[in-house]
Amino acid sequence: MAELDGEELLVLARLDIEKGAFEGALSKLKAAASLSGAPPEAALELARLYAQLRLFSKAEAQFVKVLDSSGRDYPDVRFQLGMVRFEKGDIAGAIACWDKVLEADAGYPPALYYYSVALGRIGRREEARTRLATLVRLVPSDNLYHGKAKELLGTLASLSSGDTDADTVMKPEASSATQH
């Protein structure tokens, strides 16, 4: 059998991911990303798979490698790097990533939302409210993050009256660093 090139490995890895065959996908993506002249998408897919598998240190390193090797700052990739850092508990690192995303696109809904959650986690609730209000104002009502922001604003309002535990409020549902 002939050796597969990077593009072929990438396509086969994506098929494996669709089938839930993560071990095969991981092997193919690692092989594809290591080839000279590999499609840039291979390294990005590898980073996303690491995040999905909750291998956050490997995902972080891979996302950084993708950003460094591209010579450009892709907001979506930078956002995902922020999610990985957030999941690792590196709130400051996540906020730094999302700052850059929001510099490029002030209305990037997932960055605005998770930035607000992170601010709330570190006790900066008023700033979190302001960012959530910005999200509600900028994003159409049919956007997932519009609804999530309105819900979180309501919950934060109950925090002011002492009805809710702050730690519970500022922990969004289990997230995957790849789904945003």
- Note the main sheet: none
Structural class: mainly alpha
Cα Rg? 18 Å
Q: Oligomerization state of this entry? A: single chain
Along the chain, the helix and strand elements come as HHHHHHHHHH
Task: Point out poorly predicted stretches.
Answer: 174-179
Strand content: under 5%
Q: What is the mean pLDDT? A: 88
Number of beta strands: 0
Cα(first) to Cα(last) distance is 38 Å
Q: What share of residues is helical?
A: over 70%
How would the global form be characterised? elongated
Note the main attributes of this structure:
disordered C terminus, mainly alpha, 10 helices, elongated
Structure description:
- With 180 residues, the protein is an all-alpha fold.
- Helices cover 73% and strands 0% of the residues.
- The protein is elongated.
- The N and C termini lie far apart (38 Å).
